[in-house]
Amino acid sequence: MDTPRTVYKVDPSHPGSDVAAETAAALAAGSIVFRDADPAYSKRLLDRAVAVFEFADKYRGPYSSSLHAAVCPCYCDYSGYQDELLWGAAWLHKATRRREYREYIKRNEVVLGASDAINEFGWDNKHAGINVLISKEVLMGKDEYFQSFRVNADNFMCTLLPGISNHPQIQYSPGGLLFKVGSSNMQHVTQLSFLLLAYSNYLSHAGGRVSCGSSSASPVQLRRVAKRQVDYILGDNPLRMSYMVGYGARFPRRIHHRASSLPSVAAHPARIGCKAGAAYYTSPAPNPNLLVGAVVGGPTDDSDAFPDARAVFQQSEPTTYINAPLMGLLAYFSAHPNPAESGGD
């Protein structure tokens, strides 16, 4: 690859609260993972998380205003940086148990919009994840101070449950796939299913249920919905197609991915220019290189249809933010194949 891969930065003169607070959240979460295995490294991660979050909060602004040409229109900050500030504070509270982060979350709950747009969770919008993560404190009996986050989390879960939800943006296809208006639907499937699973485990440990007005749902119901989505992705759907490349007898063969669709260096030693891939892009032939394990955008309407065409990138493009939450789901259901079982976090 000889195309530019320019590195950009945010700083006090060019703020990026969203990317900085997201980084702080990742560092704080990492510090929890390494706490027992490598205490020194864990402390280094946490110290850096604290410093990066302080920068994100002090110098406020969306990174796409500072780096507009580099990140827009594909990865502009559409939901604002406020949710990432709460997300970072929530993970720092979990990692440190410091009162300052607890107070920050409660003080900024309304200002930073904890209950806004809670039917979405992803690379741009963290609202639903914030409410699920913080609600664990309430469910474990550790902090009634955050009761409003538990209410938000319940409301979010209710929007996802078949037979209960009446949310205009959440539907289910005839084959059972969760469908949310917008492109690359599988990102919503994996991300929302991950939260369904996480919340079901919190509820199981607390002996709780989701309150949805005049009805309610058990942790098992949430896990069954999440497992149904994973099963659909792996081939239990009307097309009998796995949406994970390389898995099963039938899977997408013409994914929207340059390295998968261009010939390898061994097959084509000569240089292929940046704009010289059109012939491969438009070819009806399957991609020569399998991107094993990649999950594509999948059906993007409520008919379970999938064209398997590179040009329809909304359906054929694989992304890290589709695969990442799916790893957690696969790990859980590998260990607990029966949704009626209760497992750990």
TrEMBL record:
GO molecular function per UniProt = cellulase activity
EC number in record: 3.2.1.4
Keyword Hydrolase: yes or no?
yes
Q: Which residues form a coiled coil?
A: none
Going by the entry's taxonomy, the superkingdom of the source organism is recorded as: Eukaryota
- Enumerate the UniProt keywords alphabetically: Carbohydrate metabolism, Cellulose degradation, Glycosidase, Hydrolase, Polysaccharide degradation
Give start and end of each Glycoside hydrolase family domain: 1-330
The reaction(s) this protein catalyses: Endohydrolysis of (1->4)-beta-D-glucosidic linkages in cellulose, lichenin and cereal beta-D-glucans
Where does the record place the catalytic residues? Answer: 256, 308, 317
A Gene Ontology biological process annotation? cellulose catabolic process
| Principal EC category | hydrolase
Q: Which family does it belong to?
A: Belongs to the glycosyl hydrolase 9 (cellulase E) family.
What is the protein name given in its UniProt record?
Endoglucanase
